[in-house]
Amino acid sequence: FMRTHRLVLGVPLSINLDGFDQIRLVGDPVKCRQLAFAMVAQTATWHAPNDVRIMVAASPAVQPQWQWVKWLPHLQSPSEVDGAGPVRLFATSASELSGVGARAQGAADATPRLNLVVVDGVPGRLVPISTNGVLSSVSMPASMPRTCWESASAP
């Protein structure tokens, strides 16, 4: 399906996030980031926060471009609050994201079917987050190869 439809220009693709443990967007950083924005917006639009939890790790250089996701209910911690309400599942480093993700697992009854982790330009290795659901991540590495699309199948 994807092999056939990637040759037709202007046709949107549907991606089953359950089918991949990682989707890597590589190429022009601006276009990749715009695609990631669209993927996050579509996921939040078509899935309830109880079904999909979204966590974002953005490097300080691109963090201002990702500020809009903090308003999505999908990024609200099920167990932590601060002065503005539920803590947002937003980080600027791999270690910070791992801590945020671990704390987000605090409410067993609020475990979503899918945890989507979006990583934009954050160096370091992300520690997998222990979940009862599926973990999928969309990442844009700091150094981008020339390939337009990469994916890794779930084990």
Tell me about this structure.
This protein has 155 residues and is of the alpha/beta class. The chain is built from 3 helices and 8 strands. The protein has helices spanning 2-5, 29-46, 94-104, and strands at 20-25, 52-58, 76-82, 85-88, 90-91, 114-120, 134-140, 149-153. The strands form 2 sheets. Strands 5-2-6-7-1-8 form a 6-stranded mixed beta sheet. Strand 3 and strand 4 form a beta hairpin. The radius of gyration is 15 Å and the shape is globular.
Topology:
Elements: H1 2-5, E1 20-25, H2 29-46, E2 52-58, E3 76-82, E4 85-88, E5 90-91, H3 94-104, E6 114-120, E7 134-140, E8 149-153
Parallel strand pairs: 1-7, 2-5, 2-6, 6-7
Antiparallel strand pairs: 1-8, 3-4
- Using the CA coordinates, give the radius of gyration: 15 Å
Q: Provide the β-strand percentage band.
A: 25-35%
Question: What's the total helix number?
Answer: 3
Beta-strand segment tally: 8
Overall 3D geometry?
globular
> How confident overall, as mean pLDDT?
74
**Helical amount among residues, as a percent range?**
10-25%
* Contiguous uncertain segments of 5+ residues: 127-135, 141-155
Strand order of the largest sheet: 5-2-6-7-1-8
**Helix/strand/pairing class, anyone?**
alpha/beta
The H-and-E topology, N to C, reads as HEHEEEEHEEE
Q: N-to-C terminal Cα separation, in Å?
A: 20 Å
Describe the largest sheet: 6 strands, mixed
